Amino acid sequence: MIAPEHEAYRLIGTPRFGGIQIISDHASNRVPEGIDLGIDPVLLNQHIAVDIGVGAIAEIMARRAGIAAFCGNVSRLVCDFNREEGQTSIIPLVSDGHNIPGNALDADGFEARYARFFRPYHAALSQLLDDVPPALILSLHSFTPCLATSDEQRPWHIGILYNEDDRAARIAIPLLEAEGLVVGDQQPYSGKILNATMNRHAEADGRPYLGVEIRQDLIADAEGQAQWAERLARLCNKIALDMPQT
């Protein structure tokens, strides 16, 4: 079994064979000692640095038997785990119009950061899923109520994302709609475009997964986080029972 905490990740709760395994790549806004991003610290509480609300939801869900959470332990500005192997955007130079001067690394600096965070994160996640295969993976993210470049409000309460494997999505969408929610099928963007962690650790091995994006204003406080944690736990257990096998 992997160590419960590493500077690249945290494992919360006890993974169970046939249980629910949460994966939250962008759960933290932590900047480790020795790294200076060169940005206004206020930005670390915004979406460019962290998926607002998801860390708390993962922790609440992982208190339940049969659910565990594997969470990124550094800001996505330090290392974006939801990127394909070797992409330069793993260590972003610009995010949402903001320059990240501390990420202007030479080749050796890039490799050192990559080896320190990206490789251990994905190696540990691979081992975890091999050691304790879950019935369902929940890929947990959040999205902004509107784009920085527009005042138009995004109407979806939750988006369901997937690439080729839509087994869980097809079950989840009508269940969520039955609760009166506005559900985005491949919205606010498509999982066929950005699905790196699930492509690598779920689709590549035929592991069932549900990719979700929750609108951040709904989970910005403790009440919303508790409500969505309960909803997602209930939803994931239902999907795990009803999931068609490949």
TrEMBL record:
Q: Which Pfam families match?
A: FGase
Q: What InterPro entries would the database entry show?
A: N-FG_amidohydro, UCP029730
Q: Which UniProt keywords apply?
A: Hydrolase
Question: What superkingdom heads the lineage?
Answer: Bacteria
Keyword Hydrolase in the entry? The reply is: yes
Please tell me whether the keyword Hydrolase is annotated for this protein: yes
Q: What would you give as a GO molecular function for this chain, any one? A: hydrolase activity
This chain's protein is named N-formylglutamate amidohydrolase
